[in-house]
Prior knowledge:
The structure holds two protein chains of two kinds. By secondary structure, chain A is mainly β. Chain A has strands at 12-21, 24-26, 40-41, 43-54, 59-70, 78-90, 93-100, 133-142, 145-153, 179-180, 189-199, 202-212, 217-222, 228-234, 236-248, 251-261, 267-278, 287-297, 310-319, 327-334, 341-351, 355-365, 381-389. Chain A has an 18-stranded antiparallel barrel. In chain A, strands 10-14-13 form a three-stranded mixed sheet, with no helix packed on it. Chain B is mainly beta. Chain B has two helices and 14 strands, in the order ααββββββββββββββ. Chain B has helices spanning 3-14, 29-43; strands at 49-59, 65-75, 82-92, 100-106, 112-117, 122-126, 153-163, 166-175, 182-190, 196-203, 208-220, 224-234, 240-245, 249-250. In chain B, strands 1, 2, 3, 4, 5, 6, 7, 8, 9, 10, 11, 12, 13 and 14 form a 14-stranded antiparallel sheet that branches. In chain B, helix 1 (3-14) crosses helix 2. The chains are: A mainly beta, B mainly beta. Chains A and B meet through strand 11 and strand 15 of A and strand 1, strand 2, strand 3 and strand 6 of B.
Amino acid sequence: MLALTGMCHAQGDDLAGFAALEPRFFFDKPAYQQNPTQGLSPSVVISPEFRYAWGEGSDRITVIPFYRYDSDDENRTHWDLREANWQHFSGPWTWLVGMGKVFWGVAESRHLVDIVNQTDLVEDIDQEEKLGQPMIHVEHWSESGSLGLFLLPGFRERTFPANNARLRGPLPMANHDAVYDSGAGDRRVDAALRWRTSVDNWDIGLSGFYGTGREPRMVPQLGESGKTVLIPHYDVISQIGVDVQYTEAAWLWKLEVIGRAGQGDNFGAMVGGTEYTFYGVQGSSADLGLLAEYLYDARDKTAPPTSLDDDIFLGLRLTLNDLDDTNILAGAIVDPDDGETVALIEAQRRLGERWTLELELRALMNIPKQGRLYGIERDSYLTLRGSWYF
Amino acid sequence: MKHSTRILFAIAILLPIPTLSQDSMSLTSEARGLAIALEASRRNEGYGDTTVKLIMELRSADGRTRERVLTWRTLEATKAGEGDKSLTIFHEPRDIAGTGFLSHTHLSSEDDQWLYLPSLKRVKRIASANMSGSFVGSEFSYEDLLSDEVEKFSYRWLREERCGEWECFVVERVPVYDNSGYRRQVTWIDIAEYRIHRTEFYDLENTLEKTLYLEDYRQYLNKFWRAHDLRMESILTGKTTKLTFDTYEFKTGLTEQAFSPDTLKRIR
């Protein structure tokens, strides 16, 4: 067993990945004529991972396709190349060419700074699932920090639920008629820059992005049939971002701030807060973390809408440290003005060595009529996911 | 190796080093304990870097078992005031394959630790107060897996006695770093080669919480001894964690760059 596992920096090939059965349950009857009319909506996922390394680990090819079949949402039935890239490591230099994925940031309730990959929204309304992004990425490492440059040829449109599916708004969307600010449409070459370092208790990242923003505005338009439809409109934006974490003893202090131009008036947004962990709660081996974050967004009405304009996130993270790695995250984002609440639970444990069982709850509560989430307020759901890893 | 260790060691050898002989009873037991720790540390100096694969077997009180397979890399400190660095990479279970745990040990301040989650491509700095927390559900706490930096403890020689086939020093050590889950530890170190064969861990109420047994020592490069079977038995819970090590590789040329949070994404 020792001999055949572990590919890092080694030569040779490797096949891994997972397949999952994923029923979703919707608690309420749908708001519109839509699927599923019943509460249960089954779905399956497969995502193999191929890796091939050579040159004593200096070069690596990674291919990670992703496919989902959804019984009720034709847009959620989709495939993607999460990764399909060649990486080359040469001393302090890292090159990546192809479809790739990056993550920037430190906060838990919203990933403001993270802008390179498009959100695969049909996967999860928490916006944490991302589409693969074509890129040329070169990064230089030194002991004082790492500096990375991204060239991003080719834009990925955000995925949205189908017009007869759950989790859509009252108006249908003309998803394939997206409009671009840029004359080059979805073939514009975007650029991004990222610097990151760790000094003592501080982890600091700075980033800049210039290109087609990943968040679309939804522009109502009269469709061919005479009905109003929403057209996604993608603007060219400039964004700078700062993400900082200060770590001391059992405390993590986190802050992400962005400034953006190109969507209405220039605006800023932030998410910041703390995480405190109790280790070995009540003499057990379990750890309990408490999370609190404040979210603010100053964008005006001409920018893509967000429900996170002035909100508070509170959460609990329980890690049992048992044989099956059971862990639970529960929390809620609450708007103190009108009580609008998005609650979430994410629980996970392993079944044997190769199966995991996950439960995810997304509950929309107290959604006001003029609120951004009005229209999907009857679409609270519970996902069960049984995944087999190979 | 480390500047401060050298100074401590220089002081210790100015003291009459025949700590081992009968006529050294005049030496305080604290000085004898420190001298033993320094000698054990000196014998490990110059290892450079190591890479080893291991199986971690978790066993519950009712006998259920689970396995994790991982690679463990360490880098010896080269700068004054710094401790060793280590990187743990998980291969199994498959759902956490490619997860990395990076640790920078510091001699006189809190350690730095990062977690790399390959599916999210996310590097997370984690709290340094996790010292007493369980390492991935095992009976090992994070602090049990730190490199044995001399400065992290104060020492007291207790006695000499046989431990298995060896003649051993019995040395008590008290953590002087923050957030430890232990009041004290008692170690059995053989006189011949200064290898730890057993450690007892006493919790903050001074109750014996768990015992670590280290067996199957093999010598590398005619100098460095490494145990290949570690067994941590929890007295309080009846749970056991076994670590079974493959052959170590020494001095493979790992650099600081391989132990940086910015290069964790090269793992997978």
